[in-house]
Amino acid sequence: MTERLITHLRHVDLAVPDYAQQLEFYTSMWGLTPETSDDGIAFLAAAGSPEQYSVRLRRADEKRLDLVSFGAANAADVDAMAEQLGRDGVSLITEPDKLQTPGGGYGFRFFDNDGRTIEVSSDVAVRQHRKVEEGESVPVKLSHVVVNSPNPEQTVAFYEKHLSFALSDTLFSPHMGEVMWFMRTNPQHHSFAVARGPHVALHHASFEMRGIDEYMRGTGRLLRAGVEKVWGPGRHMAGNNTFSYFLDPHGNTLEYTTELERLDEDSWHPHIYDFSDPEVTDQWGTANPMSEFVAKQSFNDPDRGVFVAPPV
After folding, report:
1. Strands 117-122 and 64-72
2. Is 207 within 8 Å of 197 (Cβ atoms)?
3. Whether residue 3 has pLDDT greater than 90
4. Closest by CA position to 142, among listed 260, 22, 229, 276
5. Residue 300: left (phi > 0), alpha (psi -120 to 50), or beta?
6. Which of 47, 191, 214, 275 has its CA 20 to 30 Å from the CA of residue 142?
7. pTM of the full predicted structure?
């Protein structure tokens, strides 16, 4: 597939055993708004995003990543992508059809090479959103999603071949080799990234804040509340974005970020950064040092949803 049919990241959907605890955390602490909720399922929006929701929470017996959703420009592009994936032998979960989720739209789902459920959709109604004001420490939008893969080179190749994602930068270390690949589907440095991990799992979901001040206010609010911090605050080299990583009540890693780099795609050449260099992981030098403990926090639990489509 040479033409890029994916336009942007829409939402990340999580299944959790302790639904009430997670819902309370994502709304009261993380700063998302429960736009639509039903018994055991909630659609949580970011204040500044036109997307109907940025996170879906679903009550389930086992923790899992339900799906990652991407947008397409129109129904014809959705159909074209489904046809191409089917022709290439990718396992479709559903054929393109009207969506039953908030905002409607037209889309389909498929399994990627690791067994994650991916959704592609178009024509979803635009949510009535607002400008996040100065000093407001709530997410503007979902920035990017990073996944763990025990076969990361194959996963990167899958997204390059089938979804026309482009590689922006790679992280490596002298004793581990290449460990993370940042991928884009628009000029934003990355909407998606793949990390080398021991099993298939969510690595982290990142949320864009209004600016540095709002990012630091949000980071401080979580620290004062005793939310477990994994890493940060700091500023990465790849993407040039700020980072503060925390754990949600079920051990999923979440990030507050801001100022993620936008690229000139015509002139950009991917870098290979040595993350054993402290300035690569944190240009500011303010974060706790990258360590095996920090890395393992984002390995997460093995995903129980591999090659098992979510029920909704």
Report:
1. parallel
2. no
3. no
4. 260
5. left
6. 275
7. 0.97
Task: Quote the domain boundaries for residue 50.
Answer: 6-122
CA dist., res. 186 & res. 265, Å (int): 8
CB-based burial label for 216 (10 Å; 0-12, 13-18, 19+): middle
Task: Kindly state whether residues 73 and 103 are assigned to the same domain.
Answer: yes
Mind listing the pLDDT tens digit for each residue in 222-276?
999 999 999 999 999 999 999 999 999 999 999 999 999 999 999 999 999 999 9
Question: What is the CATH number for 233?
Answer: 3.10.180.10
Contacts of 96 (CB under 8 A, 6+ apart): 75, 78, 79, 82, 106, 107, 108
Q: For the segment 149-197, what is each residue's pLDDT rounded down to a tens digit?
A: 999 999 999 999 999 999 999 999 998 899 999 999 999 999 999 999 9
Q: Where are the alpha helices (DSSP H) in 152-291?
A: 152-163, 212-224, 278-281
The backbone region for 115, taken as left when phi is positive above 0, alpha when psi lies in -120 to 50, beta otherwise, is: left
